[in-house]
Amino acid sequence: MATSDLFEHPAPDSTPASPSARARALRAQLHHHAWRYYTLDDPEIPDAEYDRLFQELQALEAAHPELASDDSPTRRVGGRVLEAFASVRHAVPMLSIRTETDTGASGAAAFDARVRRELGLAQDDPPVGYVAELKFDGLAMSLRYERGVLVLAATRGDGETGEDVTQNVRTIGQIPLVLQLVDAAGPRGAAGAVGGAWPVPPVLEVRGEVYMRRDDFEALNARQRELGEKTFVNPRNAAAGAVRQLDPAIAARRPLSFFAYGLGELTPPEHGGPAFETHFDVLQTLKSWGLPVESSVQRAQGASELIAFHQRIGAGRDRLGFDIDGVVYKVDSLALQRQLGYVTREPRWAVAHKYPAQEELTTVLDIDVQVGRTGKLTPVAKLAPVFVGGVTVTNATLHNEDEARRKDVRVGDTVIVRRAGDVIPEVVGVLPERRPPGAAVFTMPAVCPVCGSAAVREPGEADTRCTGGLYCSAQRKQAILHFAQRRAVEIEGLGDKLVDQLVDGGLINTLPDLYRLGLSALASLERMAEKSGQNILEALETSKRTTLPRFLFGLGIRHVGEATAKALARHFGSLDAVMTATQDQLLQVPDIGPVVAQSIRTFFDQPHNREVVEQLRACGVCWEEGEPAAEVSRPLAGKTFVLTGTLPTLSREQAKERLEAAGAKVAGSVSKKTDYVVAGSEAGSKLDKARELGVPVLDEAALLAMLAAPEGTAETGEAE
Fold this sequence. Notes:
The chain is 34% helix and 19% strand. By secondary structure, the chain is of the alpha+beta class.
């Protein structure tokens, strides 16, 4: 279907439009492009062109104030500063829903059992139909549209009365100022039904959540730090603070988003409103009117599908671009909702099924300083044990001295601790009002707490480092564990406890000492029988046969990860060539910049590091070497791929190696910066995310074709 003339620029020879007609056309264009940008994340025009249209409309409304309207995109930039928010009484109360605190599968089962009992269903009756949604961690909002135009936005408040925050909400790009029936071709206008869709009713209250994406939150805090202003503890607090700004110009600078999830007041069918039968139809219709509805929403039959939804979302929770604290189940049938009714102002037909909390309060008992493999000193808060994110947390990283000072964490403080998935717990904020008197400001020590060597912070660096090198037992232990890990030289059975015993007992001071260990020395260690000792010796012997990339990675050169080690081996062919390469020669390696090149050069310039390498060779550690790689086509240079599922013939590692050899970067998660997702069988949330973001998806055949394509011809479309 061709785009309406409304969205086209007038032809140069056309009759000039009246100010009123031009203003209408500009508003229609801007609404269309805002919908493409904010809702679909698929803009049709550059930002500069949007700005040009916007500025034209601003100038037109300034010259003709009578043309200004509530649905004008110019209303998004804010209005007058308020002294206080006006109170708003909700036409339909914004009630809360019951929270199921049982975070396991039984929580969903218990809700389903309650619903079936209230409906009088027997065990052999069909399952109840539900809609499963995400429970956003933001600020509940009611949007009132009259004849398709946003006229009021109000907070939940106490459920009966909220605050009028219309000026601030108008600044949120995802919230349409005017509702329009939309389809794949774009907005179709506010009047009349299209393709069986409901027309926008005269009165519509949309209930939803204002939130802040995690990436927007981090960017906001970064700007706040640059300006020397207060940072925010979490995205929810930042969103709530932005919505309740008395100056809408400040709110306009805060990156807020919105998801719709329900209805308040609605024109009844007998007066021209829609006659919905299910909650799912409500959500799809809201989407058809241009309102954002989160893509994870799905129908579910019975408890088993609710449980599956809860588990699936929980597993991918940390990969979402925003915070949730659970999921919500609602009976789909609106007739059944009415039959179930309410109890104590809570609907019987809905429940919030929580996940383990990711943020909790606890007390800082002490601040220790740990020493890492590279000598980095990291302050770590020792905490009163607290259950957060599904585990009991007793330690939380403070990252470095600047971060500890910025957050002003002190011994005795009450702090907010966050843990998301497998991420290391961290202190995200302090409650200064609970600080005990005399709590001292944290200061990084001037000497290494392990070996007593000087601790220095180089200019331009955030980290403080021990200068003791392998003299420092903390660095020795971590260097050995790094060398022995599966992705490096791989010494099976050499774990933390054994390395602790070997280093603390003086049996190992350097990496080559590993290969000088004897059975008697190993067998004498605590909990080390002769058989276990023999297994370690066999693992050491096996590890001697390795590869150059693994060996380079295992040396623990700062800034040299697996990909860089592979690139070095591929480019130079031999270890000696890497060790003697000048900084300029190192810069010729793809993806190696000045910092990495300097780090490599500094490492091999140290006599004791060269001595370690030669002693490892003398102990029998070896690998195949070859000639430097010839200059080859790298058709995928600069492209980022994500692998998911099981491919028919290639293992995950084989696919990764072939992609890296073609110049591509292989990432672990899907984002807007991902160029392609390669999906095999049983692909999970990464495939869903790719579809949500519009990232091209390839199967193995398409990947192999891309790898075989000549340089400059590797572009392809979706292969599903």
